[in-house]
Amino acid sequence: MNHKMKKAATGVIASLLALSLAACGSNSNSPAGTATNGGSGSSGGKVTLELAISKSSQDSAFVAQDLLDAFEKETNIKVNLQLLPAEQTATVLQTKLAVDETPDIIQYNLASAVTDLNLERNFEILDSEPWVDRLLNKDVLSANDHVYSFHVSQDTGMQGVVYNKDMFKELNLSIPTTFEEFLAVCEAIKASGVTPVFMPFKDNWAANIWPAAAFADYAAKNDPTLFDDLNSNKKKWTDIPEFATLLDQQYQVFKKGYTNADILSDSYDMAVGKFLDKEVAMMFMGDWLIENVAEKDPNIHLGLFAIPSSKDASLGASPLGGQLFIPKKAKHMAEAKKFLEFIASKEQAQKIVDAQGYVSNFNDVTTPKLPDYKQEIVDNYITPKKTVLTMDAHMLVDRSELYRNLQDEFAGGKTPEEVLSAWNDKFAQLMKDKGVAGF
Amino acid sequence: MKTKSLYPYYLIWPALLVYCVFFVLPALIGLFYSFTDWRLDRETLKFIGWDNFKQIFSDKTLILALKNTFIFAIVTVIGKNVLGIALAIGLNMRLKSKNLLRAIFYSPSILSVLVISIVFTPMLRTDGTINKFLEAIGLGVFGQSWLTNPSIVIWTVALVSIWQHTGFQMAIYLAGLQSISKEYYEAATIDGAGVWSTFSKITLPLLLPAININLMLTLIGGLKVFSEVFVLTGGGPGNASQVVGTIILRAFGEGNWGMGTAINTLLFAAVTVISIPLLIFMRRKEVAE
Fold first, then answer.
1. Which residue of B37, B60, B148 is in closest CB contact with A264?
2. Do the Cβ atoms of B226 and B264 come closer than 8 Å?
3. Which among A151, A161, A205 has a CA at the least distance from the CA of A321?
4. Among partner residues B41, B125, B238, which is closest to A407 by beta-carbon distance?
């Protein structure tokens, strides 16, 4: 009897086990099968795309909830956002790509993807996607003659001094064209009781806006092959004394008391609030900040002028930021491509271009009337060809250590010369590690 | 008989297997990678001998990180243990509110470092609560940019860590104190021993097992510090508060994974070389008492 009981119990357990294993098998196979077929929900299961994006880019037009909802309604494919910490975005993505835990779509900067994420090895070439034939400017989405990224716009981010036009008007100030004039403007603003410049250098990348434009402006005017020489080790960062002067200029703005008191404790995410509350008049930043402020309060009029590091400096043009990429090992490749197709559709692209004031990159999508600040940039800088591609666009390696050195300058730990010397050593080591000739 | 004597060892095998698969094997693989040029942008691995290690010791930032790691470890070992013993002795007395106070002092150690960071970051600003408090009690002259002054930032992080974890050390010391027989203290009282001699001749020697455990835990934790620095300062300002843990992250962030594993191997070696002799020394003292 006891033996029979044991046999019966074993039989029941074995049946349950077999049943549960079969259930597990069907569950785990379902999404993979769906993905391979490329159909959304064709086998009954709903596909969820993972879209990884830096927390600092969470206002991106590509991840607006109404857009994601419309995509889900049309295709039955859900998009789940993976918000990555701003300072760790590159590290987290590198790790995910290395261990094949790849998101289906990544929002990143094309120039940085080349240096940080090994674009060729890790990302899908999109040359044959249906929307590519409609592109007006393939170059801004391409590297090594292939389209690797997606965007509805062909604008590049413009970097300079974001300023409150209303405050300038009230104080009867004009846009400074030299560093001395800039200091005079700061003095007048400070006298009015407003902080002239907001420096959120807890985020060390923010300290790079001034040098990125100023170094590039210097090179364009005085030594057009300078960045090529730096990248081939024909010149060192310490060989250009003017670089130290340019770094010192930004430091002088802080040293003379024209900034927020606690620059190393204040972070970029405070910037919009500072402008909305009219606590500050200026900030060294990109035109994306103007968009962010205008979204919250369209009655605040902000503009952008070139970093006044030298007489009549050019406006910095950063490589186009915030494109979408599809990793080669995306689990839902077909659905990810469908997501890009959806955004590229005439209707959706037009909505985004209209809402953001973008210069359209599709031949059937109309560029809307540009916002005032953007039209001014076009009139004052782009049309008269007074823009220069920022230093970052010429760098082949990770810039984090440069940013840390800049932060160190403001912490009192390094002089401008020491910043350049430390970066020179690190740059040489990174280039050597990368296997670049000459290092 | 023989089978019976081996029986307890059979029970260890599953745990040993899990330990080998999830710790020993990855550690050995890591050791192998530390001698290679394993990088994000390389398709193949190349054995490069000691190159990673040579490069580590020519990196000024890593030397600074090592210095910071040792400052953090020493400050936290002393702070957590001295305060832990003091709190444990205080809360081992007959106090009405001792259970409540024990819970209060222990509670920070169950919080996530992230929560601690969110609470402390605004408090430690130049215009934060701590400086305002110092000003209110007439000690405004001691006000600081606690997290942005390069010369004190690592000390600030160490103090936050002491604040958070001392309660945990206190709990271990309390357990140690309660295992000491009251008869020793009664005898000491009859003999007319003072507070200090009771502490130094009875409490301290008999508390040695707890002290050893706490010293090892705080020392190893201090040398492996990462999360406190990462969430409070990110290694900054600049590189001022970099520790070995954040340097490893930096190496991985630069795509130089071979270098990252090499620094990790060094950290493992340093923790082993420091902690094992200390453990042996402390154990001997324990036996001698």
1. B148
2. no
3. A151
4. B238
How close does chain A come to B197, measured CA to CA in Å? 48
The predicted complex's ipTM stands at 0.81
Per-residue pLDDT, averaged over B249-254, amounts to 83
Residue A34 has pLDDT above 80, yes or no: no
* Residue A18 pLDDT > 50: no
Which region, left, alpha or beta, applies to residue A193 given φ > 0 means left and ψ of -120 to 50 means alpha?
left
B255 touches chain A (CB under 8 A): yes
Do residue A55 and residue A197 come from a single domain? no
**CA gap A314, B176 in Å, rounded:** 70
B8 part of a folded domain: no
Nearest to B238 among A405, A429, A430 (CB): A405
**The predicted structure's pLDDT at residue A313:** 95
B40 touches chain A (CB under 8 A): yes
Q: Quick one: pLDDT band at residue A126, thresholds 50, 70, 90?
A: very high
- The answer to whether position B255 is within a domain reads yes
Q: What is the DSSP string of B137-171?
A: TT-GGG---TTT-TTTHHHHHHHHHHHHHHHHHHH
pLDDT, mean of residues A327-338: 96
Alpha-helix runs per DSSP H in chain B: 2-19, 25-33, 51-57, 60-90, 98-106, 113-123, 129-136, 153-178, 182-190, 195-198, 204-206, 208-223, 227-232, 244-253, 257-288
pLDDT bin (cut points 50, 70, 90) of residue A196 is very high
Alpha-carbon separation of residue A259 from A195, A274, A361 (angstroms): 6, 12, 38
Give B149→chain A minimum CA distance, Å.
6
Q: Report the DSSP beta bridge partners of residue A162.
A: A283, A304
- Smallest Cβ distance to B234: which of A87, A410, A413? A87
Residues of chain B with C-beta less than 8 angstroms from the C-beta of A415: none
- State how far the Cα of A200 lies from the Cα of A184, in Å rounded to an integer: 22
Burial of A333 (0-12, 13-18, 19+ CB in 10 A): middle
Q: For residue A288, give every residue at least 6 positions away whose Cβ sits within 8 Å of its Cβ, in sequence order, or none.
A: A157, A321
CATH code at position A415? 3.40.190.10
> For residue A429, what are its two tokens?
């080591």
Same domain, A126 and A271: no
Closest alpha carbon within chain A to B253: A91
**Residue B168: domain span:** 59-283
Q: Which residues of A touch B148 (CB under 8 A)?
A: 262, 264-265, 411
Chain A positions contacting chain B at CB under 8 Å are 87-88, 90-91, 94-95, 97-98, 116-118, 121, 202, 204, 261-262, 264-265, 398, 400-401, 404-405, 407-414, 422, 429-430, 433-434
Tokens of B10: 């059979």
Q: What are phi and psi of A100, to 5 degrees?
A: 65, 25
Q: Would the pTM of this model clear 0.90, i.e. be above it?
A: no
What confidence tier does A32 reach under pLDDT thresholds 50, 70, 90?
A: very low
Q: Is A399 a domain residue?
A: yes
Q: In this structure, what CATH number is given to the domain that contains residue B108?
A: 1.10.3720.10
Strands A142-143 and A146-147: antiparallel
Crossing angle for the helix pair B257-288 and B244-253, nearest 10 degrees? 160
Question: How far is it, in rounded angstroms, from Cα A383 to Cα A377?
Answer: 9
Residues of B in contact with A96 (CB under 8 A): none
Name the residue among A204, A262, A408 with its Cβ closest to that of B126.
A262
